[in-house]
Write a structure and sequence with these properties.
The protein has 678 residues and is of the alpha+beta class. It has 25 helices and 21 strands. A hairpin with a 4-residue loop joins strand 19 and strand 20. The protein is globular.
């Protein structure tokens, strides 16, 4: 547009000598227009919280109490893995949107080897969990909640393996704060309200109700049933279970076992002993499918992560059993683009990122799945720079595209033939039936009216119609939006020795099914499977298979040294927010706290990993203070705009300055995320 204006001015000046001055004016005007976005990007970014600095250690977590537990471990001489493990245990104990029976995914930088290790502690589908089983129950997808939604618990195993392999402290030391909390801790208002909101479902299962609804009055069921805000939330069953793990470790040590083997003795008691027996008993009694063999056969994998480079920075993610590689695909597409000239949150910048997300998530929806089950995911092709270049060519610079489907990465990793071309040729988006997308692009719509009358609301739980089967298994209670942001938390830890940890634990969120007397809730991750090979041949349900999860911890190295650890809660929104956070620092020079709070946007054009796995093409959620000219441009491009007061996402991050030997922690003001350092 600026170039066009300049040419127009030059033509005018040739016609009239007296308009030479106008030429200069036009030139200045054009240069200002061309540089507007860049200037906007360089404006100082406001942050409501200061960054946290330290030189010895740094801990960041979704809740202040969890971060405090991490600081306790550092002060007791533990390394970053010890601190992260204790924060993980505390987060599960205080129900920071996840419980003990959920899943844990982690990346760990080992300073002794210079390598980044991946921890795969995602639960697997139990015996009997097949597409036919759920289809016979008339389910389009596995249920959202309840025993039939459960996969094997992953968090206890992930914590113990991570601690045994890379930590320095005992399991007893790591669990001590959580054991104390299980005796009773003052519950926060947001947790209390979450439990109260879901009490109609929690009442379905007696053991769950006993733990979660201590104030329930059967004569007055409408009265407050959850713990009151500030009331001691007592979890006696969980207290006993955690002590059983410590007992197993102590017994092994007394019998001459070393630290690692003693921790794994506790692991065996959980997955093969009396704790496993109670999980199986309680699950089957409520209609679940777990067997002892399911827990015995499940294992934690220590893997090599996948990575890419972006302008010399190496970014690490977990493999295709989570969505993490989508950020790498997006970085590959963006690397050759001049984002700084576009400008932070200009219409061109937002449109470009949205379309890149569109392309990468279409690949995720089709190709990502458990790499331990056939067919083998074409991850090499998906992460090819050449593939990224050819995918980016598909972007229409002037309009949103709602018909972009998965690409074909197979030619980019050799002579392999794509075994599912028949599905690609007939691919169709799974659009939410009630979605009225592209309303804002209507010729009859007033841009001014659409912008001025935009709905500006914080994220909240909508009224949702629920369904349950005869065994109390909740089929669906989540709206599209709630599923999109289903419960997860984030944990970062780093120390002066060079240990760096990023964890995104999740699962077993409210309303949670508590497994008998264990006091531990079970994950609901089964819902992320597809029941039809046609939609996602790599993520189709099978017994023993891990569902493709949204969890996405991140570590970046610069010049071979730790540079950044970052993650965020928020389901399908995770890698959208993390991409923007990363670019805020690398491209736009924000400090780590500014980057965690900066205005992001969120796309819903991808298929949700929850509920009925619908997409909402063209829908974009933005911060309410966005520039009006930017909004009008996006409307003309075919986007349907919604606004919220905060859109950064609850990001936690640690930035490491190798030159100064310091660390800076950032924690978004989106929620209760907290960073502590020394």
């Amino acid at each position: 547009m600026a170039i066009h204006q300049l040419k127009k001015c030059l033509r005018m000046s040739k016609k009239n000598f007296f308009l030479k001055a106008l030429t200069h004016l036009c030139l200045v005007s054009s240069l200002l227009l061309a540089s507007y976005n860049s200037l906007f990007a360089q404006e100082p970014q406001h942050s409501n919280k200061p960054p946290v600095h330290g030189s010895h250690w740094m801990a960041a977590a979704g809740k202040p109490l969890s971060a405090s537990v991490g600081s306790m471990m550092f002060n007791q001489g533990g390394n970053a893995v010890d601190a992260a493990s204790a924060m993980l245990a505390a987060s599960a104990t205080i129900w920071d949107t996840m419980g003990w029976g959920g899943e844990t995914q982690a990346l760990i930088h080992n300073p002794n080897t210079g390598e980044v290790h991946a921890i795969n502690a995602l639960g697997a589908a139990p015996s009997g969990a097949t597409p036919e089983y759920f289809q016979n129950l008339n389910y389009k997808t596995p249920p959202d909640y309840g025993p039939l939604a459960a996969v094997t618990p992953g968090t206890p195993g992930g914590l113990m393996v991570m601690l045994a392999e890379y930590g320095s402290m005992s399991l007893a030391e790591i669990l001590a704060p959580s054991i104390e909390m299980a005796k009773g801790y003052p519950i926060e208002q947001i947790q209390a309200e979450r439990i109260e909101y879901d009490k109609q479902f929690l009442r379905i299962w007696p053991d769950t109700a006993r733990v979660m609804l201590p104030n329930f009055d059967p004569n007055n069921p409408r009265d407050w049933s959850a713990p009151y805000p500030g009331q001691l939330f007592v979890q006696n069953d969980l207290y006993n279970t955690l002590n059983k793990l410590v007992e197993a470790e102590q017994t092994a040590l007394a019998n001459g076992a070393n630290r690692k083997d003693a921790i794994m003795a506790a692991y065996d008691r959980f997955y093969r002993g009396d704790i496993a027996e109670e999980i199986v008993r309680a699950s089957q009694a409520s209609g679940g499918l777990f067997t002892m063999e399911d827990l015995d056969n499940w294992q934690v994998y220590i893997e090599e992560p996948v990575s890419t480079t972006y302008k010399g920075i190496e970014v690490f993610k977990l493999d295709s059993w989570v969505q993490g590689p989508v950020m790498l695909q997006m970085l590959n597409m963006l690397e050759g683009m001049d984002l700084q000239t576009m400008g932070y949150n200009s219409a061109e910048y937002i449109h470009t990122l949205y379309q890149v997300m569109n392309l990468a998530f279409a690949d995720r929806d089709f190709y990502y799945g458990d790499p331990y089950f056939p067919p083998e995911e074409p991850i090499a092709g998906l992460l090819s720079k050449d593939y990224a270049r050819d995918r980016a060519v598909l972007i229409n610079p002037r309009a949103n595209q709602t018909d972009i489907g998965p690409g074909n990465p197979y030619p980019y990793q050799g002579d392999e033939t794509n075994p599912f071309l028949r599905y690609l040729e007939n691919w169709e988006a799974n659009i939410e039936p009630r979605w009225n997308g592209a309303v804002n692009s209507s010729e009859n719509s007033s841009e001014t009216s659409l912008v001025n009358n935009a709905n500006i609301n914080p994220i909240s739980k909508p009224n949702v119609i629920s369904q349950s089967d005869d065994n109390g298994n909740v089929v669906s209670i989540m709206s599209h939006d709630e599923g999109f942001h289903a419960g997860t938390t984030s944990i970062q830890a780093a120390d002066e020795e060079g240990w760096v940890v990023s964890i995104t634990p999740s699962g077993a969120w409210m309303p949670a099914f508590v497994a008998g007397s264990t006091g531990m809730s079970l994950s609901q991750r089964m819902q992320s499977f597809e029941l039809s090979e046609k939609r996602s041949p790599y993520n189709t349900l099978e017994p023993g298979k891990r569902p493709r999860a949204t969890l996405s911890p991140s570590i970046a190295l610069k010049d071979g040294k730790p540079y950044m650890a970052f993650s965020v809660q928020g389901g399908d929104g995770q890698d959208q927010w993390l991409l923007q956070f990363f670019l805020n620092i690398v491209e736009f020079g924000m400090d780590v706290q500014q980057a965690t709070e900066a205005a992001n946007f969120e796309s819903y054009q991808l298929h949700s990993s929850f509920g009925d796995h619908y997409s909402q093409p063209g829908r974009i959620v933005m911060r309410s203070d966005m520039d009006t000219l930017v909004l009008r441009t996006l409307i003309r491009m075919g986007y349907e705009l919604e606004f919220r007061e905060k859109t950064s996402g609850p990001i936690t991050a640690i930035l490491l300055n190798q030159e100064y030997g310091t660390m800076t922690g950032g924690a978004s003001d989106f929620g209760d995320d907290t960073a502590i350092g020394f």
